[in-house]
Structures are given as structure tokens and as C-alpha cells.
Design a protein that fits this description.
- By secondary structure, the protein is α/β, with parallel strands linked by helices.
- It has 27 helices and 19 strands.
- The strands form 4 sheets. Strands 9-8-10-11-13-12-17 form a 7-stranded mixed sheet, sandwiched between helices. A 5-stranded parallel sheet has the order 2-3-4-6-5, sandwiched between helices. The chain has a 5-stranded mixed sheet with strand order 14-16-15-18-19, with helices on both faces.
- The longest helix is centred in the N-terminal third of the chain and has 19 residues, at 30-48.
- The N and C termini lie far apart (62 Å).
- The structure holds thiamine diphosphate.
- Residues 54, 57, 80, 82-83, 124-125, 153-156, 181, 183, 185-187, 286, 346, 369, 396, 399 line the site of thiamine diphosphate.
Length: 631
């Protein structure tokens, strides 16, 4: 992509300030718009980083949807939202794309407060059909005439929630169009029977006939309701009478080529004229139109800034990440323990299971975007002699809460949860932040919770949690920590015990997890004691009591919401024991932290060393301030 092409693309896009302007164009002009969107997308993401391959795959679909439907009056709901950059570009935001995923910039997903065209906020997958159906019910209740379109990928369709919504929608006679964007990819290869089913539909010997036949039909009869109906019958008959989606109560059309703009436009036009629940199956190529992304859509799913001419990406940070520590640990342990099995809900790469999947394919389970199933599936394996490790992001674990309580913890099953992306995650923002896990897991009986202070401790904690007979979770942040390289051994830590890192005077900081470095930095200024508490549950009560006895002020520190978090555990213990002492809890506030770098987010949350010091100084009684300045 050269500068000239980028400027030409930008010039054309400047004309299309809103989809209304797009709708003024002739159909013949649309391929040029699609090309401009694609060129602009590649150029801008090469500078900002972000999600690339999914957006490239839906350029034509996005143009066609906004061309045919009267957005934002008609509700267009993208699932996940990572593929919605072309939608942002065409809905008046192309000039802001440089700010994508940065502090105060455009979100990398969808937000109702960012644009009227973002009909429903997203980030987590498989919500679009439910939301669209809810809006369809609301339209009916308020007598509004409009369309509701959910665009969902084949990966997102693997989630139970999507099927719950299809099941419900098929039974209601409301105006809903579900567009399946089938690129035969999730982040990595999709798994499961649905994905196999879709592949069978595509490879069916009828596919080519359908595609050619539908092209011919549509070129003669665009927009005519009765003929559209005949065409629909014709296509239906040819694909498979009674497809899965038909059985669910939808009028199914497809599969059609999602890069053929004229075909997309006429098909959508015809489907707009139909009523009731409709299902359009569109086949696209992830990464379309950019050779490196077409060649490796998994690598180009989410990118750091890259050179657009070569596709070469900027290096990710050099140190070993917590994810890599997990990856090494699970591979090392697999050699020794044949009972070990790993489960991921569609996050093989992000969770650090690529090597394990390659070397231990028969003990590796990618269950699709199915967090609930992942956890109960692990519980089942734990019942009968296997030792499952569920590798899951903190924010996606939220989906599997009842499974953790009812299926794992209540039965005290031996499942280890390796919870990645705990705390702030940076550019993905609030939808992906792991802000709540300590609070929502701590109250579950039988669950143990370990929070490593650095990479070396992460490895030991994973081993400790795994050795523990019963459910246990280790939660660690995105990226790297202080750089303490783990040993190669499989060390087990003393259960439920923290450690004093620095002995100080009147103030004690009880640090839970990866903010230990910050605690140590602050402690130097305050001459404070620092304890690395290690375990959120069971809490090292002996250590808490000792610290309370020897200090005038206890400060707890964690990267989790204060409400119900590790600090709350300290408060509860002290209150239960009748120990009266001054405790102040530092953690995430009762608010969503906006996107930025992780450091910016910690600062916004008041958890940078500077902000903490400022707040703590205001808390200190005069006696302590004097003691500190004398020391
Ligand atoms: C609940 C949840 N789990 C996992 C993810 C991470 N995730 C983001 S996109 C994606 C793959 C989606 O695949 P698909 O719907 O086919 O879209 P594509 O990227 O192929 O266009 C996954 C697993 C998520 N966003 N939400």
C-alpha cells in the first residue's frame, strides 16, 4: 500500500461522511468505496495496531449493509465488534482512526456512547442475536417499523448464548435478520460440530450451483418481493431442504459469496423485503485483500503496528510474559503428569497453549467460544481421574460463574484455573479488563486463589495450585512483570502463607499480586513494611494479625475492584477477630477504567506509585508523618 493509494482512499472517504452519503452513490460506485475502505483500514491499523484480519473480511459486507439498510434507524449489531473497523470508517469516524485503542481515542470494539451507529456495545462475543431480538421486541412494543440485523461470525456462533438466542428468535415472529459471516476461522481454526456442519454446507456439491444460480436470479429481479420469494424457494431447495437454521424457524438463504458486492447488495435488498426471522449465510475470507493476512489470518487477527508493504510487525515486548510462564509450566508438567489435560475456550494463542496443543494434542481441548461448557467439561474430567487446567482470561471467566460454583467448587473438584489478563489489559479497554475475579471467586467456598507477584512466583503458584487437591485459581496480569525469571523446577509454595519482603515502621502494605513492585517503591518513601501476601484465599491470617499488631496503619493493595476484593478479606478477618486497627484498601475503583496503556490505566485508577503515594500521605496521621521524615 503506497502513500498515493492511501491519500486517494482518504479523499473518497472524506466524501462519505455518513452512510446517508454512501446511499446516494450508484451501485456501480460501491466497489471503489470498498477498495478505499480496505486501503485505508490497512494503512491506519499498520500505525495503530489492533484487529485487522476480521475487518478485512467484512469490507464488502459492511458497505452492502449500510447501503441497503437505513442505519442508524435500522439497528445494525456487530458481534464482538473486533471486525467493525470498516463500519467505523463508514460511519463518520475515519478521521479518528489514528486514535484507535489509545487513551481518549476510538474504542477497538463498539460503544453506544461513541456513535449512534453502534447500536449495541460489544467486546465479548455471541451477544448480537440476543440484543437484536430484544430491540425487535422493543420496536414491536412501541410500534416502530425498522430492521434489526445481527452480524455474527462462525466462531462466535459456537457459543451457547448464540444458540439460546436463535432458539428464542425462531419462535417469535419478529423482524430479525441474522447474517452469519462464515470465514471458517475463529481466532485460530474453529472447532466443533457446528463448524463442521458449516463446512459441509459449503463443500456440498450444490454450493457452486447455488452461487451461480443466485447471481443470475438476482441480476434480473432486484428488490421484487414475489420473485425474491421464488428465488428463496429455489435456493432453499438447492442447498439442503431443512437446514439447521430452517429447523430453528429462520428463513435461510445462502451460502453466498461475501466479497461479491453486487450479489450482497441484491440479496440484502431482497431479504429486507421479507418479514420474520431470516438467516443469511455469507462466506468470506478472513484477511481478504491483504496478502500477509490472507496467508496467516490467525497471526493477523490482532496485530501490533506493522510495515504495510511487508506485513512485518513491530516486536512485542522482549521479556517473558506471564502467559509464556504458563506456557512453559504446562508443557514441563505434562511430561511428568499424564493426568494433566488443558482446556481453552477458543483462546489457544492468547492463553499460551500453542506449544502444548502441538506437543500434547491428545490432552488438549479447544472447546470453541464456550466458557460455560469449558468449566463444566473440566469438572467432568476431574470426576474421573484427569487433572484439568482451564486456561481462561479473567473477563471471559465471568461467563462461567455458575459453572465454577455449581459444577466445580460445590463438588470440590480438582480443577486448576489459570486466569490470565487479570487486572487492566490496556488497549482492549473495559470490556476485556479482569477487574472482578478476586471479588467474585473469593466468596465461593472451597475455591483457593493465588496471586503471583512476579513471573517466577507465577510458575511456583501454578504448580502449588495444581498440587492442591481441590479447585484453585492462579490469576496473573497481561504482559510481563518485574522480570524475575522462573527456575526450571516445579517448586511448591507453603500453602496459605505470605512473606514479609521489607520490614519498616508504622505502616504496613499488604500486597496481593503483581503490584508488589509498586508497593516496594512506595514503601521506600514511607519507611513501610511490605508483605507479599501471595494467597487471597486462604488468607494468611497469622500474618495479617501480626502486621496489625505491629503497625498503626495497614494498607492493602491489589489490581481488582476494592469491593469484595483481597483487601475486603483482610477487613473481614480483622472485624471477625475484633481487632481494631486502621485499614485502608487500595484497588480499582467502583468504575470502568477506559482504554489506554496498562500504565495509563493504573494511573487513571489511582494505582500508579505517584497517585498512591499522594493518597497515602494524606491518610497518614501526624505521628507517622513525623516519624517518616525523621527516618
Ligand atoms: C466471550 C468471549 N470469549 C472470547 C473472546 C475472544 N475472541 C475475540 S474474537 C474471537 C474469534 C471470533 O471468531 P468469529 O466470530 O468467527 O469472527 P472472525 O474473527 O473470524 O471474523 C474470539 C475467540 C471474546 N471476545 N469473547
Amino acid at each position: 500500500m503506497n502513500q498515493e493509494a492511501e491519500s486517494a482512499a482518504a479523499a473518497l472517504l472524506r466524501e462519505i461522511t455518513t452512510p446517508d452519503a454512501l446511499r446516494q452513490l450508484s451501485r456501480e460506485q460501491l466497489p471503489e468505496v470498498a477498495e478505499a475502505v480496505r486501503d485505508f483500514l490497512i494503512a491506519s491499523v499498520s500505525r495503530t495496531g489492533g484487529h485487522l484480519a476480521a475487518g478485512l473480511g467484512v469490507v464488502e459486507l459492511t458497505v452492502a449493509l449500510h447501503y441497503i439498510f437505513d442505519t442508524p434507524h435500522d439497528r445494525l449489531i456487530w458481534d464482538v465488534g473486533h471486525q467493525a473497523y470498516p463500519h467505523k470508517i463508514l460511519t463518520g469516524r475515519h478521521e479518528q482512526m489514528e486514535s484507535l485503542r489509545r487513551k481518549d481515542g476510538l474504542s477497538g470494539f463498539l460503544r453506544r456512547d461513541e456513535s449512534d451507529y453502534d447500536a449495541f456495545g460489544a467486546g465479548h462475543s455471541s451477544t448480537s442475536i440476543s440484543a437484536a431480538l430484544g430491540m425487535a421486541v422493543a420496536a414491536q412494543a412501541t410500534d416502530k417499523q425498522r430492521e434489526h440485523i445481527a452480524v455474527i461470525g462462525d466462531g462466535a456462533l459456537s457459543a451457547g448464548m448464540a444458540f439460546e438466542a436463535l432458539n428464542h428468535a425462531g419462535a417469535l415472529d419478529l423482524d430479525l435478520l441474522v447474517v452469519l459471516n462464515d470465514n471458517d476461522m475463529s481466532i485460530s481454526r474453529p472447532v466443533g460440530a457446528i463448524s463442521n456442519y458449516l463446512a459441509r454446507v459449503l463443500s456440498s456439491r450444490f454450493y457452486n450451483r447455488v452461487r451461480d444460480g443466485s447471481k443470475n436470479m438476482l441480476s434480473v429481479v432486484p428488490g421484487m418481493k414475489d420473485l425474491a420469494h421464488r428465488w428463496e424457494e429455489h435456493v432453499k431447495g438447492m442447498v439442503m431442504p431443512g437446514t439447521l437454521f430452517e429447523e430453528l424457524g429462520f428463513t435461510y438463504i445462502g451460502p453466498i459469496d461475501g466479497h461479491d458486492l453486487p450479489l450482497l447488495v441484491s440479496t440484502l435488498e431482497n431479504m429486507k423485503a421479507m418479514r420474520g426471522p431470516r438467516f443469511l449465510h455469507v462466506v468470506t475470507q478472513k484477511g481478504r485483500g491483504y496478502a500477509p493476512a490472507e496467508g496467516d489470518p490467525c497471526v493477523y487477527h490482532g496485530v501490533t503496528p506493522f510495515n504495510p508493504s511487508t506485513g512485518k510487525m513491530d516486536k512485542k515486548s522482549s521479556g517473558k510474559s506471564y502467559t509464556q510462564v504458563f506456557s512453559d509450566w504446562i508443557c514441563d508438567l505434562a511430561v511428568q503428569d499424564q493426568r494433566l489435560v488443558a482446556v481453552t475456550p477458543a483462546m489457544c494463542e492468547g492463553s499460551g497453549l500453542v506449544d502444548f496443543a502441538r506437543d500434547y494434542a491428545d490432552r488438549y481441548y479447544d472447546v470453541g467460544i464456550a466458557e460455560q461448557h469449558a468449566v463444566t467439561f473440566a469438572a467432568g474430567m476431574a470426576c474421573d481421574g484427569l487433572k484439568p487446567v482451564v486456561a481462561i482470561y479473567s473477563s471471559f471467566l465471568q461467563r462461567a460463574y455458575d459453572q465454577m460454583i455449581h459444577d466445580v467448587a460445590l463438588q470440590n473438584l480438582d480443577v486448576t484455573f489459570a486466569v490470565d489478563r487479570a487486572g487492566q489489559v490496556g488497549a482492549d479497554g473495559a470490556t476485556h479488563a479482569g477487574s472482578f475475579d478476586l471479588s467474585f471467586v473469593r466468596c465461593i467456598p472451597n475455591m483457593a486463589i493465588l496471586a503471583p507477584a512476579d513471573e517466577a512466583e507465577c510458575r511456583s503458584m501454578l504448580q502449588t495450585a495444581y498440587q492442591h487437591e481441590g479447585p484453585a485459581m492462579v490469576r496473573y496480569p497481561r504482559g510481563g512483570g518485574s522480570g524475575q525469571q522462573p527456575s526450571e523446577g516445579l517448586e511448591v509454595l507453603p500453602w496459605g502463607q505470605g512473606e514479609i519482603k521489607v520490614q519498616g515502621n508504622s505502616v504496613a502494605i499488604l500486597s496481593f499480586g503483581a503490584l508488589l513492585d509498586t508497593a516496594l517503591e512506595i514503601a521506600k518513601e514511607l519507611n513501610a513494611t511490605v508483605a507479599n501476601m501471595r494467597f487471597v484465599k486462604p488468607l494468611d491470617e497469622t500474618l495479617v494479625a501480626e502486621l496489625a499488631e505491629k503497625h498503626e496503619l495497614l494498607l492493602t493493595l491489589e489490581e481488582n475492584v476494592v469491593a469484595g476484593g483481597a483487601g475486603s478479606a483482610v477487613n473481614e478477618y480483622l472485624a471477625a477477630q475484633g481487632i481494631v486497627t486502621r485499614v485502608v484498601n487500595f484497588g480499582l475503583p467502583d468504575a470502568y477504567i477506559e482504554q489506554g496503556t496498562q500504565q495509563e490505566q493504573l494511573d487513571m485508577a489511582g494505582l500508579s506509585a505517584e497517585k498512591l503515594l499522594k493518597d497515602i500521605r494524606q491518610l497518614l496521621p501526624d505521628t507517622i508523618v513525623r516519624a517518616v521524615s525523621d527516618s
